[in-house]
Every structure is written in C-alpha cells, then in structure tokens.
Amino acid sequence: MTKERKPVAIPVYQRVEDIPVREVTVAEGNLDKTVVPLYLFSDTGVVDPVAVIDKLRAELSNRCWWLMPEWRDKGLPKEQLSVSSDRLKIEVFNFGTRLDDQEVEDFKAMASIYSQLRGEMEYTTILISDARSKNDYTGEALNGQGYPDARMIKIDPHAREKKPHRVYEVSNFLGTLIHEGAHPYVSGEHDVRILNSWTDEFGWHMSSNALLTPGGFPQSQFVDEPDRTISDYAKFNPGEDFCESVVAAIFAPERLDLGRFNFLDRELGVTGVQMGNNDGIGVVRRSGNKIILPRLSEVAYYVKIMKPIRMAQP
Ligand SMILES: [Zn+2]
Questions:
Q1: Ligand 1 being an ion, which residues bring their Cβ within 5 A of it?
Q2: How far is the CA of 91 from the centre of ligand 1 (A)?
Q3: What is the tens place of the pLDDT at every residue in 158-173?
Q4: Contact 155, 129 (CB under 8 A)
Q5: What is the whole-number distance in angstroms between the Cα of residue 247 and the centre of ligand 1?
Q6: What are phi and psi of 185, to 5 degrees?
Q7: CA of 245 to the centre of ligand 1 (A)
Q8: E strands within the chain?
Q9: For residues 157 and 96, what is the distance between their CA atoms, to the nearest angstrom?
Q10: CB burial class (10 A; 0-12, 13-18, 19+) of residue 60?
C-alpha cells in the first residue's frame, strides 16, 4: 500500500481587507496593544467612515509586516527559521539567498544571548531582505534596521558579508543581530528611563547647531567624551551608543569603557551571559509550501480619539 501524499497548499498572504474590524469606545478598550487607537481630526466630531477604515488599515499595515506592500511584492519568503528558547521565540523570514550554517548558528547565539539578558526581547520577527538600502547616518550600505511598531528587524544583504562588525571581535552578521536587538531597550516606546539615564550618565546633550551626517541625516545630539565610545557609529546619538556598547559588552568587554560596562551590567546583567552553548535553543527550518505566514486571526479592534483640527500638529 502506498501512502498518498497530501499536497500542501501554497501559503497565501493575508489581505488587510479581509481582517474583520470592530469599533470600541474608550470606556470598553483599555488602549492596550489589541485595540488600535486612531487619532482623528475634526472640528464637527464627524469623520468620513471610509477614511476611518483606511486609517485603521494603514495602522495595521505598520504593525504587521506581511501586510506591507514592500514585503508582499517580493513574493513568498524563500525560507523560514523558527528559533526558540524557554524565554523567547524569533521567527526569521528570509527573502535573500539561503542561510548558511554559520548564519543559523548566529541566530541561535542571538537567541541564547537575549534569553540570558534581563528584560524581554521585544523584536519577535527578523526579515532578511534581498535588496540593499542606505544607512541614513553613514551614507554607506545598511546592515539592519528596527521597526518598533512591527516588533521586527530588517537585515540587509550587507550584514551577511563575511567581515568583522564595527565593534570587532564578532562577525558583522552576529554583531548586527545583537545591535538591532538592543534598540528596544532605548527606543523610548515604553520606558524612557534607561535612555534618559544613559544620556545623563555619559554626557550626551542637544545642540541647536545640528550637523548633517555623511548620510545626510541631521545630527543634533553630541557626546562630551567621544573617545569613550566604542565605535564611530556610537557617536551619532545615545541610542546608537547604547546598542554598540551592548555588542562590545558581550564580545569585547575589555575594550568597552568601564562606566558603560557597569551600566549595562546593572540594567541587563551582561556579566551573566555564557557564550558558546546553544544547546537550549531549538531551530525549525521550513521552505517552499511548508512556510507558515503569520496572520491576524482575530478581529482588529479600534477606538476613535477625536481631536479638533486646531489642535493638529504640523
Ligand atoms: Zn542602531
């Protein structure tokens, strides 16, 4: 008797138009992450219902990468890597060339490191792009970029080139993963305490004389003692200083300014991180029709927050 092979359906992206939506009032919704707040401007209190739904769909697309045209237009990811420990789960969707063994190991190392650091790893998705883009600070090829609303990191092909990371002692790929994974600690989305104390403790200040970075991005924050930073990239702003320092604290602690190391030890527990043992990290690799695309399985709730037009910010 031969076993019949059941054909696996081709994965299909969810469409934003197919997601059921329902309005709640401020009293019903606690404005947590499951209720999307829509800020609407009107002097009469009346807004076009079509415009409301359009705005909600735009908000959902900001939060869900699979609704974003720039990713959907690439077609299906070539492979998916589900990396998990008892503390976190990261879904990697790869639109570029196939991951090599070292890159898979680097994802395991990232999961292991972030499982050992204090706090929750807020980025749960990593998308590997097939297209190069430019870093706004340096004007050079981008390694990676975080998208806090979508809890996602984008990795560009440049990060996969076999060369050392800016901070050294580590590959560009793993250094980029650790750097990007550190951004939520100082994104200021939920808790500005760490960013504020880093800014104070290491002498970052604003200047009205913004300089243009080589990439053309205005730089308005400057550090008093630039020589204490671990890389040129750390000199752009306190957030980059923090993320570069996390990479150094893990891979080259002896090269990092002691004040910064102590800060990271106090907040994240960097001295407790054990390297090289990824036994507790599980990896499931899928490709082709086995890829499981994410989807919102529930109703998208939203709450309308009306503001008069005269309050609208430019
Ligand atoms: Zn960064």
A1: 240, 243
A2: 20
A3: 999 999 999 988 999 9
A4: yes
A5: 11
A6: -60, -30
A7: 11
A8: 21-24, 35-41, 79-84, 89-94, 125-128, 144-147, 152-155, 204-212, 218-223, 282-287, 300-307
A9: 7
A10: middle
CA of 44 to the centre of ligand 1 (A): 43
CA of 259 to the centre of ligand 1 (A): 20
* CA 69 – CA 75 distance, rounded (Å): 10
Token pair in block for residue 297: 């399985």
* Two tokens, residue 270: 């960097």
Query: Residue 166 C-alpha to ligand 1 middle, in angstroms?
Result: 12
Does the pLDDT value for residue 34 go beyond 90?
no
User: In angstroms, what is the span from residue 296 Cα to ligand 1's centroid?
Assistant: 29
pTM of the model: 0.91
Query: Which residues share a beta bridge with 36?
Result: 302
| Rounded alpha-carbon distances, angstroms, from residue 259 to 177, 188, 234, 245, 307 | 24, 22, 15, 11, 45
Which tokens in the block code for residue 102?
């070292």
Backbone angles phi, psi at 158, to 5 degrees: -60, -35
Distance 104 CA to ligand 1 centre (A): 22
d(CA 58, CA 16): 9
- Give the pLDDT band of residue 277 (cuts 50, 70, 90): confident
Please provide the DSSP assignment of 112-170 as one string. Answer: HHHHHSSS-----EEEE-SS--B-TTTSSB--EEEEGGGTEEEE-GGGGSSSB-TTSSS
18 alpha carbon – ligand 1 mean position (Å)? 35
- Cα separation, 218 vs 58, in Å, equals 27
- Beta carbons of 132 and 159 less than 8 angstroms apart: no
